[in-house]
Amino acid sequence: xxxxxxxxxxxxxxxxxxxxxxxxxxxxxxxxxxxxxxxxxxxxxxxxxxxxxxxxxxxxxxxxxxxxxxxxxxxxxxxxxxxxxxxxxxxxxxxxxxxxxxxxxxxxxxxxxxxxxxxxx
Length: 121
What we know:
By secondary structure, the protein is mainly alpha-helical. The protein has one domain. Helix content is 70%, strand content 0%. The protein is built from five helices and no strands. The longest helix is centred in the C-terminal third of the chain and has 28 residues, at 80-107. The N and C termini lie far apart (81 Å). The relative contact order is 0.12.
């Protein structure tokens, strides 16, 4: 009986498992990780935007979202195009989050900008 290490070194390259490992597609995993990070980055962006600008900045998220989604339609890339779409959809989702953030500030869950006290009445 051969030791395990020697059996591993005598790999049969015609083995279907070996071919599967060589042809695995990691693009989906990369896009999923990047999506997770993008969503995580947008949380503080929404909080800071509401604090400094209030809900008046929703149109900026609308324009940015439409631009990113439009760009995703024209970019030829298996990674870049989906990520541009994710960023665009995150911008559009941030419009809703800006208004919900204002409600969170009213409840006292987040700090209120003292320069804009009238916006929270």
